[in-house]
Amino acid sequence: MTGHKTVGMSGSGTVTEYHATSNVGLLFQKYKDTGEDVYLDGTAILDDKSGGRGTERIALTGINFDSVAIINIDAEGDVIQDELPFTIEDFNYISPLNATV
Length: 101
Known about the structure:
- The chain is mainly β.
- The protein has one domain (11-95): Phage tail tube protein (Pnp Oxidase, Chain A, Roll), CATH 2.30.110.40.
- 12% of the residues lie in helices and 41% in strands.
- Strands 1, 2, 3, 4 and 5 form a 5-stranded antiparallel beta sheet that branches.
- A hairpin with a 7-residue loop joins strand 2 and strand 3.
- 2% of the residues are buried.
């Protein structure tokens, strides 16, 4: 067997934005205009009511969006959805599911 060890960590994910405001685009405009990078904090919540396992909450800090669609048009009038990939600086479980560690 070849041994392996952890030598670092990185965190990433994707969030679906239902385009109802220009807030995300304005964050990128701030970066474009000033060069100042934008970092956000948020909470990821998993609540699968049909599974009966409770609710998991994870605090995400230093969220930085990797890309954003500035304009997305739907000719049929549906709510616009944008997939936003992101990376994070840190995370902490607020309420884990079935923790045994």
